[in-house]
Write a structure and sequence with these properties.
mainly beta; Purple Acid Phosphatase, chain A, domain 2; 5-stranded mixed beta sheet; 2 helices; 10 strands
């Protein structure tokens, strides 16, 4: 299964990000969406799972959960915006992946049998951080995680 990971769009849906996520079976947005138009654009590509970030305070965002769980093929995924809000052991709870955003810093950490992924920010450039999304392929072991620069 091909999963697209995106975060911190802050209302900006880059065409390059849409191109990078095209072909995904599922897209996960890890918060700070910024506009319902961002989710509409992603839904035109694939099913979308999204959580609310700290900037998502408008009425349209009230329906977004603060955390959620996604099942993508063999992968059980816990999604939240700020990793510092994680208050349980994902490995003990049976999760394979934790997807978060907030820091705008793309990264992957493997810890205790769980892959922690922050796709970085796909929205307006912040400082000198790259503008990225992630392509995750769970079709073969080990799962392939590819960071794609989109800005």
């Amino acid at each position: 299964m091909k999963i697209g990971l995106i975060s911190d769009t802050h209302g900006l849906m880059r065409e390059a990000a849409l191109t990078a996520l095209r072909g995904s079976d599922l897209i996960i947005h890890a918060g700070d969406v910024g506009s319902p138009a961002v989710l509409d654009a992603l839904r035109a590509l694939a099913a979308v799972v999204a959580v609310r970030g700290n900037i998502d305070r408008q009425s349209w965002a009230a329906s977004l959960p603060v955390t959620t769980i996604a099942q993508a093929g063999p992968a059980r995924i816990y999604v939240l915006h700020n990793l510092h809000d994680l208050d349980f052991n994902p490995a003990e709870a049976g999760f394979h992946l934790v997807v978060s955003g907030h820091s705008h810093q793309p990264g992957r950490t493997d810890l205790g049998g769980v892959i922690y992924i922050n796709p970085g920010s796909a929205g307006p450039r912040r400082f000198k951080l790259p503008v990225t999304v992630v392509r995750l392929n769970t079709g073969s072991e080990p799962w392939k995680v590819k960071f794609v620069e989109v800005g």
